[in-house]
Amino acid sequence: RERNIQAQWFDVRKGMRTSDRFGRAEPDVEALAELTNQQLAPRLDEGIVITQGFIGSEAKGRTTTLGRGGSDYTAALLGEALHATRVDIWTDVPGIYTTDPRVVSAAKRIDVIAFEEAAEMATFGAKVLHPATLLPAVRSGIPVFGGSRK
């Protein structure tokens, strides 16, 4: 508002159709693509759109959650559905590290990492990105940028 930039709200549950596995809902990628392009894409032409991650809705309209990493996963899914050229994910940790820098002071930052390496690190418990987050990006060839406000 201070910069006089138009922004509008979009409830992601209108586009993120999921299974009814509450706490670990699976997105319906085809429905997401269709609904996102009908309801969200036109709003992007009008300015900035604010939405949420981590949630969706099942066939009866009840709110579902995607589980751990659900917000990042939502970003990647929306990026895929909208044919984005890049997905940016912001976090409170400045980069990807060889280990948790809050625990190991000698941890080294990794400036560039391949999808496969990030997925492997996440699979073994690294707090990089949830492995599911990388699937839509890999399927669509969309680079994922991990940024930090620190």
UniProtKB/TrEMBL annotation:
Q: Where in this chain does the record put each Aspartate/glutamate/uridylate kinase domain?
A: 2-145
Q: What's a single GO BP term from this record?
A: homoserine biosynthetic process
Entries under SUPFAM superfamilies matching the protein: Carbamate kinase-like (SSF53633)
GO CC terms: cytosol
Check the record and name the InterPro entries matching this protein. Answer: AceGlu_kinase-like_sf, Asp/Glu/Uridylate_kinase
If you read the UniProt record, what top EC class would you report for this enzyme, in one word?
transferase
GO molecular function annotation: aspartate kinase activity
Q: Does the keyword Kinase apply?
A: yes
| Highest taxon of the lineage | Bacteria
Keywords for this entry? Answer: Kinase, Transferase
List the EC numbers from the record.
Answer: 2.7.2.4
Family, per the entry?
Answer: Belongs to the aspartokinase family.
What's the protein name?
Lysine-sensitive aspartokinase 3
Q: From which organism does this entry originate?
A: Enterobacter hormaechei
